[in-house]
Amino acid sequence: MLKRTFYKNNSWKVAFVTLSIFALLSLYYQPPTQFVLRDALPRRDFIQKLFAPSDAGGCRVNYSIPEVDTFIREYQGKSNLLDSVFKVDEQEPYLSFLAKLNKWKRKGKLMKEFVKNNNTWAWEIFHQQINQYFLYDPEDTSYYEQLLKDLSQRKITFTDINPFSSHLVLTVHFDNGMKGVYKFMRTPRDHEVLPNHFFFSDIERAHSEIASFHLDKVLGFHRVPPTVGRVLNITEDIGKVGVDLLTNTLHKSPAGNLCFFGKCKDYCKVDFSICGTPDTVEGSMSVFLPRRGFNQSIYWIQSPWLRTYHFSIKAKWEKDEQFCETDVKTREDFKGRRVLDFTDVGVFDFLIGNLDRHHVELFEHFGNDTSLIHLDNGRGFGKSKYDCMSCMSPVRQCCMIRLSTLAKLVKLYIGPDSLSHVLRKSLEADPLSPILWEPHLDSVDRRVGQILKVISECITKKGKPWQEVIIDDGFY
Ligand SMILES: Nc1ncnc2c1ncn2[C@@H]1O[C@H](COP(=O)(O)OP(=O)(O)OP(=O)(O)O)[C@@H](O)[C@H]1O
Ligand SMILES: [Mn+2]
User: Fold this and answer.
1) Helix axes 94-103, 206-218, angle to 10 degrees
2) Which terminus of the chain has a lower count of CB atoms within 10 Å, N or C?
3) Closest CA to 55 of 382, 428, 452
């Protein structure tokens, strides 16, 4: 009786307690596979792993270097950095750190002073918004997402050959007046360059173009034109709307697939045909930039670290470690930001493993004080196990790095997010995802530590003062 009254009066309480017990029990109950995980990790780590902002723990989790750890302790102790935007906090997710730096980006003139268009389509707004110091702002909702969508989906109305390329590269025209540069996915994403192969006979890789755009973006450089993966239909996009130089070469392969080879300097013959399955191919589409020069269509600087493109002749920089001091820092046109721009190029090319940086382009409109444009990134991500130390020559020989670039590398090294993590996440947005083979993603983590080691050695081994190596030139 007493019992029954108790239940009657407290029935809602009983229900609540019972439900709570069940809820708690169900929290602890995990299917068998998760028991294995729980056994392997102490409870606290397990929960941290579930709620940590990343699935990694910084590049150093797999590629810790003792000298770099010491260097970073010194970096974190620098009093002038403690209260600055360059202070690296071990808990902060990388993208929030990057967003803070991006806010400080110096802004210069806009291309709209020089380019006239209707400012309506995404590509028109992009052209007008090109800044003296960066190509685009990924936060600008007025065009950025739409531009990528247009590049991957809009109807192609005319297809030509890019006359400046040694490979078959297309200039593509769209139904809204936009133009794009298309490179073909000629090798599977896991294809590794053969060890005896020279880089200059290397085939261009569209996955490298796409991944380079994302890497440039997550490094906050914004110097690579927006690029997306796109499927091309050879029947529709070449056969129906291509120039004669393309359509004249259309043929069926022995397997019955539709192929063509077009016309170009080096690799346009039937041995290098591009074939569909049965008539579609994958590739990268980059948005076409406005003219870089006033009187000529291309305005460019030859890289001081240009290679000879010869099997045995070496360039001066390859034989002389003093090259930057004697031949680069002394150049009149390399005063101002230019040396640091080239050390950024060195960081970038080392991360992607690109030996083919023969020249860089820039907008003449903005004068000498403007950022470099990193076009042509098709020869990166070819060797996942090999680190091209000579690609980092600008950093090693000049013994300099921009503070903002260093801060981002330090942040990626200590975590919580590694470069492979943020790059993988960024690449997931591409329509042809997955773009990079995991060993290539792993290689960028290894390379972050290598760059930091070279910088720390400028101070510890070459005896340079900190402030001569790490330069805050106000560019983020
Ligand atoms: N997005 C773009 N917008 C405008 N022009 C471009 C763009 N991409 C490439 N170009 C022009 O086309 C030229 C050749 O393109 P790219 O360098 O990518 O082809 P490539 O075959 O790899 O060239 P190379 O044989 O010189 O290495 C570039 O130097 C540039 O002048
Ligand atoms: Mn090239």
Assistant:
1) 70
2) N
3) 428
Ligand 1 pocket, mutate which of 162, 202, 204, 307 (most atoms under 8 A from CB) = 162
- Nearest-5° angle of CA 155, CA 157, CA 159? 115
CA dihedral 445, 446, 449, 451 (to 10 degrees): -100
Q: What is the pLDDT of residues 94-141, one digit of tens each?
A: 999 999 999 999 999 999 999 999 999 999 999 999 999 999 999 999
The DSSP element (H or E) to which 159 belongs, if any, is strand 156-161
Query: ipTM, 2 decimals?
Result: 0.96
Mutation probe of ligand 1 site: the residue of 181, 227, 300, 354 with most atoms within 8 A of C-beta = 181
pLDDT in the model for residue 389: 97
pTM of the predicted protein model: 0.88
DSSP string, 11-63: HHHHHHHHHHHHHHHHHH---HHHHHHHHHS-HHHHHHHHHSSSSS--GGGTS
Which spans in 60-174 are helix H? 66-77, 79-82, 94-103, 122-129, 144-153
User: Which residues have C-beta within 8 Å of that of residue 66, sequence separation ≥ 6?
Assistant: none
Catalytic residue among 216, 341, 356, 430: 356
Query: Is residue 373 scored above 60 in pLDDT?
Result: yes
Question: 3-class SS at 76?
Answer: helix
| Other CB atoms within 10 A of residue 173 CB | 17
216: annotated active-site residue: no
